[in-house]
């Protein structure tokens, strides 16, 4: 059963990583370079907007059927994307994929929450962190190999056999506790619509701001106003709805709210690092773009190993507060060290710095989900899982946008001051840089180092907030092993006994 869940998680995490390396080939065949960013944005938007809705549907109608539906939608989107004949079709089909992906990620975490008591859950969620790291390492390599030998369409078709295996295994062997509900379940359509509009506006602001449109442009300002208005209306509607998409009472738990904040900050830092570290190693250290996945190995292997250890220790001891504190401290230190990199930093040194950051993220990645799930009742397991995932997704959008804006500004300023001209940094790999005049190349490498310094220094400052928040976490006993003391009101919701279920 665990294998099926891991395959489903791998499908959702691997897709964007594979597609990234195939995009130049896709654009070469389908055209539409001006719409390139929408291939990723459509997927991200659909995933973020559907995440809380999938969680609520699982709570209302049962986890298994909802999860199977999300797998089917993802596979349909994959097949259609592989058959796309122009960029418009590909963008639309990627949105279908994203709808399914939102259910995959939430479904895996919520199913683990249904089957495994919190005391035992750490080791399983540590394995899921390992799957995420595997996707980040292997995605670019797999994508490049598939595109080179089979063609870009197989970057989508590869999901079909993997998804079919997960679908068959989930259908055959997944047995979940029966949900007992009285009355007819009602979907909060108005709340779901307002939340979708709000999330869409936020993601578009972070995607377009400073790139497609100036931050002060009417489009960006209008999207900000729309997002704020929609989310404010959403909060009001949720206080009145019979079955709210996101029950606001879950935020009365101090631990749940803190885990949402820490998850947001972790996403902010993590995806910013994944974006800028390969650029630094290719542009400044002369590494090959072909091996871009391997460039992150020190960080990702450290993250995977620490996450697995933290999960095991949590399972054996039932203690977890030390992990968000240690994770927050290591993230601050790791980002500060990465901010010190310059044109003379060796790959060994940068690798050690990345390992420190990876260890920090490893302490936080799955502990945030574990504590969030332990802070709600079983009936809210889906929305707790989806809300935590959503905050991390939104954090990644903000991180990429804000760190990216600072990075680009520093690069352009340094290039102008050093007479290097204006360059499109994303198009300058090691081979292209080698052909440039020495003065322009040195100016660009210094500019990238300066941009990295600013971006990671900002990330370090943001990570301090997560470190401080971790001290306010209350160590509520994890349920499911040994005698259980009565938890304090609001932070350790009483869960009904779980039926026997094995993974």
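Sequence proposed for the structure above (503 residues):
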């Amino acid at each position: 059963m665990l294998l099926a869940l891991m395959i489903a998680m791998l499908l959702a995490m691997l897709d964007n990583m594979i597609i990234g390396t195939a995009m130049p080939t896709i654009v070469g065949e389908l055209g539409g370079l001006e719409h390139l960013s929408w291939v990723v944005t459509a997927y991200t938007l659909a995933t973020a907007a559907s995440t809380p809705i999938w969680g609520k549907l699982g709570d209302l109608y049962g986890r298994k059927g909802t999860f199977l539906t999300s797998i089917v939608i993802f596979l349909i989107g994959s097949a259609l994307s592989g058959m796309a004949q122009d960029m418009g079709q590909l963008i639309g089909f990627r949105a279908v994929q994203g709808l399914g992906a939102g259910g995959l990620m939430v479904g895996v975490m919520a199913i683990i929450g249904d089957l495994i008591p919190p005391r035992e859950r750490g080791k399983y969620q540590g394995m899921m962190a390992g799957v995420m790291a595997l996707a980040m390492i292997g995605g670019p390599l797999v994508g490049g190999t598939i595109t080179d030998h089979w063609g870009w369409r197989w970057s989508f078709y590869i999901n079909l056999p993997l998804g079919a295996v997960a679908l068959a295994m989930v259908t055959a062997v997944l047995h979940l506790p029966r949900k007992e509900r009285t009355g007819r379940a009602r979907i909060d359509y108005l709340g779901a619509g307002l939340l979708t509009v709000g999330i869409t506006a936020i993601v578009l602001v972070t995607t377009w701001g400073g790139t497609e449109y100036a931050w002060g442009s009417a489009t960006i300002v209008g999207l900000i106003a729309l997002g704020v208005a929609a989310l404010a209306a959403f909060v009001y509607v949720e206080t009145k709805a019979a079955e709210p998409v996101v029950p606001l009472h879950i935020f009365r738990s101090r631990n749940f709210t803190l885990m949402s904040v820490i998850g947001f900050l972790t996403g902010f830092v993590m995806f910013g690092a994944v974006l800028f570290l390969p650029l630094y190693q290719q542009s400044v250290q002369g590494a090959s773009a072909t091996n871009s996945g391997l460039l992150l190995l020190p960080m990702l292997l450290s993250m995977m190993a620490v996450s697995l250890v933290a999960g095991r220790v949590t399972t054996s001891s039932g203690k977890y507060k030390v992990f968000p504190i240690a994770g927050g401290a290591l993230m601050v230190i790791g980002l500060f060290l990465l901010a010190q990199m310059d044109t003379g930093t060796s790959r060994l040194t940068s690798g050690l710095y990345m390992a420190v950051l990876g260890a920090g993220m490893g302490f936080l990645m799955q502990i945030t989900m574990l504590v969030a799930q332990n802070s709600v009742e079983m009936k809210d397991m889906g929305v707790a899982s989806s809300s935590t995932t959503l905050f991390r997704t939104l954090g990644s959008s903000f991180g990429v946008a804000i760190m990216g804006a600072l990075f680009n500004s520093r690069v352009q300023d340094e290039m102008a001051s050093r007479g290097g001209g204006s360059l499109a940094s994303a198009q300058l790999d090691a081979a292209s840089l080698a052909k440039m005049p020495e003065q322009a190349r040195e100016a660009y490498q210094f500019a990238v180092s300066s941009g990295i310094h600013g971006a990671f220094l900002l990330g370090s400052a943001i990570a301090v907030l997560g470190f401080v928040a971790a001290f306010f976490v209350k160590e509520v006993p994890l349920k499911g092993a040994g005698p259980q003391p009565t938890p304090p009101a609001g932070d350790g919701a009483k869960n009904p006994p779980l039926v026997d279920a094995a993974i």
